């Protein structure tokens, strides 16, 4: 019998890019946040051997380049398991980048495989295998609000942020992530040339600054907890009951000025993406940003109603958009097998 798993997407609440490393990856700091938009993955294990990928969407690869294939291949070896694994991918998420769709699919396939085999990998082994397949996979083994460091694969659960309404816009533009990183390197070297005389901090230091801002925000959250004397027992930070502006730690975070560095190189190349953010802002978003290297962009909204209206406004302009909500860690894990 097939095991069905929801494969939730993510957005990035800020992303600071650092130096290019000798292994070809960039050091980065980001806060990942899972959202309720999802694909559905079905995993079954039968007699025989091999891995089969089934998906009606022609843009999804069915061969060994598929992230689901790659993770299952590794997991079968690590679990010392045998059999023919069939993975069905029901694509509901836009294939456009920035939402971690393929990465989430792979983690869902791994979780489904473990259930189908009634065997589990130890937590650190799961994280290792996920990181081998891609930088954006391990976050989906944590869920909720997640700090990503290293090349993004080193993940730590952050105090969970309250669920908040958001709009995900998915303009039909393909942004290549390796190319966006290369454009960032070019941007940094040009910026250094222009401003060399003033000896400014290199743009890569923005990543270090991102870490400082985040640390100060976390510290502020704890101070607020001790000052008020009340804290959420589960998360360790005060969580406002309302979804309004005051006292919402998610809004406090995005108002620290954290940014997604990719916007600096992706927006000049695709001005229409900046315009999408403009529409979201005019429709009442309290924060907008590119997610990952795009092309998905998002806006956070104070209410579901405001989010629905903004999504409708974007769709009227011909831009695919969906109103949804961010997903806390408990919600993520509760809903993942609840299909
Ligand atoms: O890890 P993932 O396979 O998603 O990375 C795809 C490509 O994006 C890498 O080969 C690399 O060119 C670029 N990348 C990077 N720095 C990161 C993550 C990805 O340069 N932190």
What does this structure look like?
This protein folds into two domains: 3-160 and 330-335, Ribosomal Protein S5, domain 2; 166-327, GHMP kinase, C-terminal domain (Alpha-Beta Plaits). The radius of gyration is 20 Å and the shape is globular. The chain has ten helices and ten strands. Strands 1, 2, 3, 4, 5 and 6 form a six-stranded mixed sheet that branches. The protein has a four-stranded antiparallel sheet with strand order 8-9-7-10. A hairpin with a 4-residue loop joins strand 5 and strand 6 (154-157). By secondary structure, it is of the alpha+beta class. The chain has helices at 67-78, 101-117, 123-133, 177-195, 205-228, 249-254, 263-269, 271-282, 304-316, 329-335, and strands at 3-20, 26-46, 51-55, 84-90, 145-149, 154-157, 165-169, 287-290, 297-301, 321-325. Helix 1 runs parallel beside helix 2 (101-117) and helix 7 crosses helix 8 (271-282). Helix content is 38%, strand content 23%. The structure holds cytidine-5'-monophosphate (C5P). The site of cytidine-5'-monophosphate has 12 residues, from strand 2 and helix 4.
Quickly count the domains. 2
Task: Outline the biggest β-sheet.
Answer: 6 strands, mixed
The topology string of helices and strands comes to EEEHEHHEEEHHHHHEEHEH
Oligomeric organization of the protein chains: single chain
């Amino acid at each position: 019998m097939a095991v069905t798993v929801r494969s939730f997407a993510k957005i990035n609440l800020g992303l600071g890019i650092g130096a290019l490393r000798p292994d070809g990856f960039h050091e980065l700091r980001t806060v990942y946040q899972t959202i309720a938009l999802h694909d559905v993955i079905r995993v079954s294990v039968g007699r025989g051997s091999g891995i089969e990928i089934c998906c009606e969407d022609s843009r999804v690869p069915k061969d060994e380049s598929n992230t689901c294939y790659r993770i299952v291949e590794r997991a079968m070896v690590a679990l010392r398991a045998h059999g023919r694994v069939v993975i069905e991918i029901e694509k509901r998420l836009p294939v456009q980048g920035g939402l971690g769709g393929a990465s989430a699919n792979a983690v869902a396939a791994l979780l489904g495989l473990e259930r189908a085999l009634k065997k589990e990998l130890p937590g650190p082994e799961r994280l290792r295998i996920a990181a081998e397949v891609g930088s954006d996979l391990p976050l989906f083994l944590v869920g909720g609000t997640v700090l990503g460091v290293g090349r993004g694969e080193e993940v730590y659960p952050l105090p969970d942020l309250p669920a908040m309404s958001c709009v995900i816009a998915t303009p039909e533009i393909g942004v290549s992530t390796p190319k966006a990183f290369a454009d960032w390197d070019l941007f940094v070297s040009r910026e250094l040339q222009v401003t060399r005389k003033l000896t400014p901090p290199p743009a890569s230091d923005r990543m270090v600054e991102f870490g400082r801002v985040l640390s100060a925000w976390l510290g502020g959250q704890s101070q607020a907890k001790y000052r008020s004397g009340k804290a959420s027992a589960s998360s360790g930070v005060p969580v406002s009951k309302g979804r309004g502006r005051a006292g919402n730690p998610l809004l406090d975070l995005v108002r620290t000025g954290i940014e997604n560095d990719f916007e600096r190189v992706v927006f000049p190349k695709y001005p229409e993406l900046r315009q999408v953010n403009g529409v979201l802002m005019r429709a009442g978003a309290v924060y907008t940003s590119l997610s990952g290297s795009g092309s998905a962009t998002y806006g956070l909204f104070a209410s579901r109603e405001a989010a629905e209206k903004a999504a409708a406004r974007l769709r009227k302009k011909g831009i695919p958009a969906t109103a949804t909500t961010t997903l806390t860690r408990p919600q993520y894990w509760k809903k993942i097998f609840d299909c």
